[in-house]
C-alpha cells in the first residue's frame, strides 16, 4: 500500500526537475552557447582548427558552424591562419579572461587552490615567494593537527636553508648565486643546511630533474616539507607551493598522493599565471 505514494512522489520530483530544466532552457541563447563552445575547442595543443573539424566535434551542421565562425571573426575573437582555410584564436580572447584576472594579486589567485589542496590532503598548505636572500610566506591555509610549526603569514626564513628556498633559487646561475651569497660559509640552521654555495648549487641542480622536493627536519625538527615550483609567464619560477606534514608521516603511498595533489595544484596556479605578469619582490 506504500508503493503508490512513493511512486507518485518520484513522479512529482521528476516532473519538477523537468519543469526546472524547461525554465532554464527558456533563458538559454543557443547561438551564444555554440559560439562559446567553439572558442573552447582551441587549446595550446590544438591552436588551429578547421570548420569541418569543429562541426564534427560539436555535432553542429557545417553551415551553422560557418555562420558562427564568421560572427566570431567579425568580433575579432578568431582569425584565419596562414593557409586561409583554418582558424585560430586572437589576443582578444585572452583579454576576456586575463585582463580581469590580472587585477588580482598572486595570493588572491592562490587562495582557493590552496584551500582545495588542504581539503584533498588534510595538510597545511603554503605559498612562498623569494625576497632576495629570504623566503616569505604570502599564502597559508592551515589544517588543525597535533603538531605545529612556527611559520605564519609574513614569516621570513633564510632561502638557502629551506626547501622552498631551494625551489625559488634554482633558476639562478652559479655566478648569480655566488653574487647573492658572497660569504665562504653559509649559516647553518640544521645539519642538513648546505655549508657552501657550491653545495647549495649541487642540490639545486638535482632538484631541477624532479617535479617536487621533499625532506624531513630540513629546517625545523619534527616537520617535513614538500615543495613544488609555480611558474609564471616566460617559464620563470615566481613562487613555491607546498605542504607541511609531521616528520613521523613516512608512508610511501601517502607521500605519492601528497606529491600528486601538490603538483596538480601548482600546475593549476601556473596556468592562471601563464599570461599574467605578477609583480613580486624576488630579486637576483
UniProtKB/TrEMBL annotation:
It holds the Pfam family IclR_C. Residues 92-275 form the IclR-ED domain. Keywords: DNA-binding, Transcription, Transcription regulation. InterPro entries: ArsR-like_HTH, GAF-like_dom_sf, HTH_MetabolicPath_Reg, Tscrpt_reg_IclR_C, Tscrpt_reg_IclR_N, WH-like_DNA-bd_sf, WH_DNA-bd_sf. GO terms for biological process: negative regulation of DNA-templated transcription. Residues 29-91 form the HTH iclR-type domain. It comes from the Bacteria. PROSITE patterns: HTH_ICLR, ICLR_ED. One of its GO terms (molecular function) is DNA binding. PANTHER family: HELIX-TURN-HELIX TRANSCRIPTIONAL REGULATOR, ICLR FAMILY (PTHR30136), TRANSCRIPTIONAL REGULATOR (PTHR30136:SF34). This is IclR family transcriptional regulator. It comes from Pusillimonas minor. The lineage of its organism: Bacteria, Pseudomonadati, Pseudomonadota, Betaproteobacteria, Burkholderiales.
Amino acid at each position: 500500500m506504500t508503493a503508490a505514494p512513493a511512486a507518485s512522489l518520484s513522479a512529482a520530483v521528476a516532473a519538477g526537475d523537468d519543469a526546472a530544466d524547461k525554465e532554464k532552457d527558456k533563458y538559454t541563447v543557443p547561438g551564444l552557447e555554440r559560439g562559446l563552445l567553439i572558442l573552447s575547442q582551441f587549446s595550446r595543443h590544438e591552436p588551429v582548427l578547421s570548420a569541418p573539424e569543429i562541426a564534427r566535434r560539436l555535432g553542429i551542421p557545417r553551415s551553422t558552424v560557418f555562420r558562427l565562425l564568421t560572427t566570431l571573426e567579425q568580433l575579432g575573437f578568431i582569425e584565419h591562419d596562414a593557409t586561409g582555410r583554418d582558424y585560430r584564436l586572437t589576443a582578444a580572447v585572452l583579454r576576456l579572461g586575463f585582463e580581469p584576472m590580472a587585477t588580482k594579486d598572486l595570493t588572491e589567485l592562490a587562495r582557493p587552490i590552496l584551500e582545495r589542496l588542504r581539503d584533498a590532503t588534510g595538510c597545511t598548505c603554503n605559498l612562498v615567494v623569494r625576497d632576495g636572500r629570504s623566503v616569505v610566506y604570502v599564502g597559508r591555509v592551515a589544517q588543525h593537527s597535533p603538531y605545529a610549526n612556527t611559520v605564519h603569514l609574513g614569516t621570513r626564513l633564510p632561502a638557502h636553508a629551506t626547501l622552498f628556498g631551494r625551489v625559488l633559487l634554482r633558476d639562478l646561475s652559479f655566478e648569480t648565486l655566488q653574487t647573492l651569497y658572497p660569504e665562504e660559509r653559509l649559516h647553518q640552521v640544521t645539519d642538513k643546511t648546505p655549508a657552501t654555495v657550491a653545495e647549495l648549487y649541487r642540490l639545486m641542480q638535482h632538484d631541477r630533474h624532479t617535479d617536487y622536493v621533499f625532506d624531513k627536519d630540513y629546517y625545523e625538527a619534527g616537520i617535513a616539507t614538500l615543495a613544488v615550483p609555480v611558474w609564471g609567464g616566460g617559464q620563470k619560477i615566481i613562487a613555491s607551493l607546498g605542504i607541511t606534514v609531521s616528520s613521523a608521516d613516512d608512508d610511501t603511498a601517502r607521500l605519492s598522493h601528497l606529491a600528486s595533489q601538490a603538483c596538480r595544484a601548482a600546475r593549476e596556479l601556473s596556468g592562471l599565471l601563464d599570461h599574467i605578469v605578477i609583480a613580486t619582490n624576488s630579486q637576483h
